[in-house]
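Handoff note, outgoing to incoming analyst
You'll be picking up this chain. Sequence as last confirmed:
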Amino acid sequence: MTPQPRPHRKVARLEHAPALAAHDLVAFLARRAVPGSEAVEDHTYRRSLRLRHGAGIVALTPAADGVMCELQLDDPRDETQALDAAQRILRLDVEPDAIAARLGPDPVIGALVRAAPGRRVPGHPDPFELAMRAVLGQQVSLAAAATLAARLVRMCGEELRRPVGGVTHVWPSPEWVAGLDPERLPMPRSRGRALIALGAADWDSPEELLRLGGVGPWTASYVALRTGDDDAFLPTDLGVRHGLEALDQDPREAARIAEAWRPLRGFAVAHLWATATPPRRPSPRARA
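Most recent structure output, in case you need it:
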């Protein structure tokens, strides 16, 4: 039996601007964690990555003076790509001072921004995975979406050579998903066809996503928000609407109210979500 090559390991401290809303970020990821590909334990977020030369696992532990990042990679050539993914997951590029300067004076959300200038929506390292998860999450709860996604990961994902804790698989590739039979997927056929179309289509923008069957404006905007569009906004999102109601605003006027927040409407979404659902510290182990 040929021995497995030893994994490449790397530990790094990732710097960030002060005021990182670390508990918010980890709690957001914990509530959406997909068993098999993600886990949260002791304030550490861990997930698998599909990288250029192989698979990997990244573990992120935020702290006041930086984020501890631990990598386990099949191939050391993927180190730079994995570190970039780690930065994007926690949006460590965000400059809270610039956000506070733009949104802090706003009469609707200014007080929220001034109280937590580092609040942000987490990013995501894989637009295809995110789009699949957004489609799976349409019209179901977070727990139901995570459970359904976990089934797909076990059924179609690639097993890791060296799993860590509950992280055992890499998310299915677009090519694998494109070859699935919608009749065999544990979901309505229309949603299964939408997933297969995601895998088969050559798309790289929210606008192109909208041309696919089964993908609506909320899904496209959510993908944009989680993949770096700081001005993405979700006027029909239930959390956005509840956040506006908590601020004594008419949720039917969400799109109009948000015009004042350009070009940083995505950060306004983070504050509205936090207002609608007070942040909770993540449980010791994330569950679907």
